[in-house]
Amino acid sequence: MAIMSMAQALVKFLDNQYVSFDGKETKFVDGIFTVFGHGIVVGLGQALDEDPGALRVYQGKNEQGMAHVAASFAKQNNRRKIIACASSIGPGAANMITAAATATVNHVPLLLFPADAYASRQPDPVLQQFEQVNSLATTTNDAYKAVTRYWDRVQRPEQLMSAMINAMRVLTDTAETGAVAICLPQDTEGEAYDYPESFFAKRVHKITRPLPVKEEIADAVNVIAAAKKPLVICGGGVRYSEAGEALEKFCAEFNIPFAETQSGKTACLSSNAYNLGGLGVTGNSSGNVIAKEADVIIGVGTRFSDFTTASKSLFRDDVKVVTVNTSRFDAYKLDAVKIVADAKEGILALGEALSALNYRSDYTTEIADAKKGWDEEMARLAAYTYGEGFEPLIAAREERTIPEFAKMYGTDVTQVAAVALIREVIDKNAICVGAAGSLPGDLQRMWTSDERYSYNMEYGYSCMGYEIAGALGSKMAEPDKEVYAMCGDGSYLMLHSELVTSIQEGKKINVMLFDNAGFGCINNLQMSNGIGNLATEFRKRDENGELLGELMYIDYAKAASGYGVKTYTARSLEELRAALEDSKKQTVSTLIDIKVLPKTMTDGYGAWWNVGLASVSGKESVRKAYENIEKMRKIARKY
Question: Over the stretch 512-564, which tens digit does the pLDDT of each residue have?
């Protein structure tokens, strides 16, 4: 037995957690990220100060930001390692809720310790305590219940044991993993208990591969064997199962093309002859053309988001769906014939059964033709410039912004050409990180890599502000690789505080800041649906009191240089190339302020997105847009 405070016991427990996957054992908890504050610093903080064991303490600058770092670290480690996060009560705790939701949506393990009000209630209301008048048992931390996979509040020190065992159960569950919130009342953190030594023994949590059952394999094979033109969707489950090579062999043996989701990208090699690239709303022409003709969809490790399925309008009305997923919930989607199993084991079992039938699809030149068409489009995008005969890639009702922006910054850089150049110049094994705006579309379509797991796109929640924190998390996971945060100016303004942490930790990241003077993606969505240019560009208020005045001039490079970041400004492709080459020589974090012309990002390539536009309006443009939405809703599948 060992008498210690609850917080001291928590630290010792975390330091002795390991995971094993395919026989490889790794330490699970690397350390704890925190912004010390009221409710955590003298409890958990005291325990970490006295004896952190092998846990490293990281100092965050914003609670949401540090939790994004931790989630990205876990993702880059394919969910085999985590960094826990601890916050003060009240606003500190509330700041992590967005990150919790982001991790849960993306099935990424994230362990959070928000401090809580006193379990004894004797000093109530303490500083930063949220009082709910209909129940004093409710605090800020109850908000985590909606966005976590497991939630608990340790009101007595002995409750820590069952709370943490359950936390580890969820964090290491391939189907159920996500955010876990263990709320720590600040008085309980310091209370002592005589803990059994067995609680601190080394625990190795086995991350296993659930095997498919023969009945489900037989059902799936019956569907696939009758298919003439099947299509595989490679989702994030392929990455976490490390099943990319198995999927490539499966598709080659049976002559089946595959397309990638944002989460599944780089689980397989971009150069693979059967890889069509991105699918759906942010997909390319190659994947979407094949998808529309496919008679069977085989979804491996995907949750079929609306962007993947183009709001369920991308596939034929009579298409049949087969799924392989560890999550029974996701496996049942689209009325699929399901295989509830690990992605790799499911693929191997399907392959064995189809081989016995000598199955092969009826594709001839369609796959190569579709890929060739996209290669030609990629070349066009890379050469797309501003000058005589210029037309914006995205239709713009107002032509004011593009020439105004070009004159203000003296730039001729288009967004797609900048993306193509970055991919050309940087290291082949560099890690690309992104999350929000128009860049996820450009990147899913245009980014190629034969380095597995080198694409870290948070697109389940598409959380603005993830990009720079996510880049730091990826760098902490793979310090020997260059990491690039692909970030719009809107996301940068939303949250870039962990750029300072990268300097503090000596972990070099590279921020590619695409400045187009606003929330460009949402401006496109707004205006393409007949709505006016309302509060989506960064403009000053005009004489009529509207946000339609002159564009704001912002020198992001100058501002970031004050942090100690090496910065550059690029107003031409030549300047961008020079900045990229020089940034590779740097040992500190870098930022390239790329002044990119608005409306020069990629567009839909035949995919549709269902949005809730007003069904009645006094504007003809809105009514016309709604008519198109109603037409597509009739086409889309109803389940």
Answer: 999 999 999 999 999 899 998 899 999 999 999 999 999 999 999 999 999 99
What are the Cα distances from residue 174, in Å, to 78, 238, 301? 11, 12, 11
Q: Is the pLDDT of residue 399 over 80?
A: no
The answer to whether the bond into 125 is cis (omega within 30° of 0) is yes
Q: What element of type H or E holds 34?
A: strand 29-34
Considering just the CA atoms, what is the radius of gyration of the chain in Å? 25
**Neighbouring-strand partners of residue 84:** 32
Cβ proximity of 230 and 271 under 8 Å: no
The CA-based angle 77-305-280, given to 5 degrees, is 100
Helices (H), ranges, 205-281: 214-225, 236-240, 244-254
Residue 537, φ and ψ in degrees, nearest 5? -110, 150
pLDDT in tens, 204-248: 999 999 999 999 999 999 999 999 999 999 999 999 999 999 999
Q: How many CA atoms lie within 13 A of 610 on its CB side?
A: 18
CA distance 279 to 264: 11
Q: Residue 238's closest CA among 390, 395, 348, 164?
A: 348
Q: What is the mean pLDDT of residues 65-93?
A: 97
Using an 8 Å Cβ cutoff, are 238 and 268 in contact?
Answer: yes
Cβ-based neighbours of 67, under 8 Å, separated by 6 or more: 33, 60, 85, 96, 99, 100, 103, 110, 112
Q: Which of 87-96, 268-277, 393-402 has the lowest mean pLDDT?
A: 393-402
Residue that the structure tokens 């189809």 belong to: 354
In sequence order, what are the beta bridge partners of 433? 456, 485
Query: Cα–Cα distance between 435 and 230 in angstroms, integer?
Result: 30
Can you give the length of the chain in residues?
639
Residue-range domains of the chain with CATH: 2-206 (3.40.50.970), 214-368 (3.40.50.1220), 383-597 (3.40.50.970)
Q: Quick one: three-class SS letters along 525-549? A: HHHHCCCCCCCCECECCCCCCCCCC
For residue 28, count other CB atoms closer than 10 A to its CB.
28
Q: For residue 240, give the nearest of 541, 548, 453 by alpha carbon.
A: 453
pTM above 0.85, yes or no: yes
Which pair of tokens denotes residue 91? 């606003």
